[in-house]
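To close the chapter, one final illustration. This time we ask the reader to focus less on the individual chains and more on the assembly as a whole: which components sit near each other, and how the overall shape emerges from the parts.
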Amino acid sequence: MAGVEGRVIAVTGAGNGLGRQYSLVLAAAGAKVVVNDLGGARDGSGSGSAAADAVVAEIKDAGGEAVANYDSVATEEGGKAVVGSALDAFGRIDGIVSNAGILRDKAFHKMTADDWNAVQQVHLYGGFHVLHAAWPHFREQGHGRIVVATSTSGIYGNFGQANYGAAKGGLIGLINTLAIEGRKYNVLANAIAPMAATRMTEDIAPPEMLAKLTPDHVAPVVGYLLADECTETGSVLVAGGGQVHRVRQFQSKGVAFAEVPTIEQVGDRWAEIVDLDGAVPGSNPVG
Ligand code: NAI
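The assembled structure is written out below.
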């Protein structure tokens, strides 16, 4: 097989925006797609089947194969049900795009525990629930492809998005370890930080910028990360408007203290500690 042809891929939050586009592109390339969407509003309230059904209809009209799933990824049962839909309809699961998302933006001093929890439940726990249900299948068959939706807010931070940034940063931590644990089973795990005009960003970026950021620029990058020939793993890609970049952590040359320093001695060497000249890609010293 080549590309994603014949592969069974579940895309969560696929009823709108980026997830819809991922599903259309994957199905057009011959994948069988589980189109998951809870069908709620941008803040996570409400639910319905229309969003997922519309995308499935679009795929079928174009001659592709897809089934709808309406479960919330925010629960363990929901995550299992997404993978269950793939097994019931197509007999296997080869890839997950963990893309479902909501927003509850607020400055940190105004953020409630409910705003925090709701966002973690959909993005971070949602990723866990679906991936954990698919993982045994990936290991057993010696093939699996994972793409999680992160964000530049998770990588760099953004005003009003402490909850969202923490969840998106957590997903990078998740794929870093899944890449290590999955390597010997041909299970690859990467993260995409998309930039696209969707209902999520419609009031966040200026219209002239959004006009250039259609979701179709991002979908082929996600498609490649799911392809049989892809070998990339543990990477974070930023993609939007025709640009595709890899982001990663670097470690400064830093200093090595021969003896336990005083607070003042740390301060004296601070400029050297944080100087990124000659920094190298970081790695886990115990990994
Ligand atoms: P969107 O709001 O158009 O689509 C998100 C979809 O997720 C919606 O259809 C919604 O119904 C679904 N969803 C929400 N909660 C769910 C749940 N519990 N279970 C199942 N489905 C659920 O947003 P967009 O822009 O397409 O975002 C897709 C992903 O990309 C999100 O994870 C978002 O955080 C991420 N992202 C998007 C960026 C952009 O520029 N649009 C920037 C950075 C990240």
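The chain has two domains: 8-248, 249-287. The first strand starts at residue 8 and ends at 11. With these observations in hand, you are ready for the problems at the end of the chapter.
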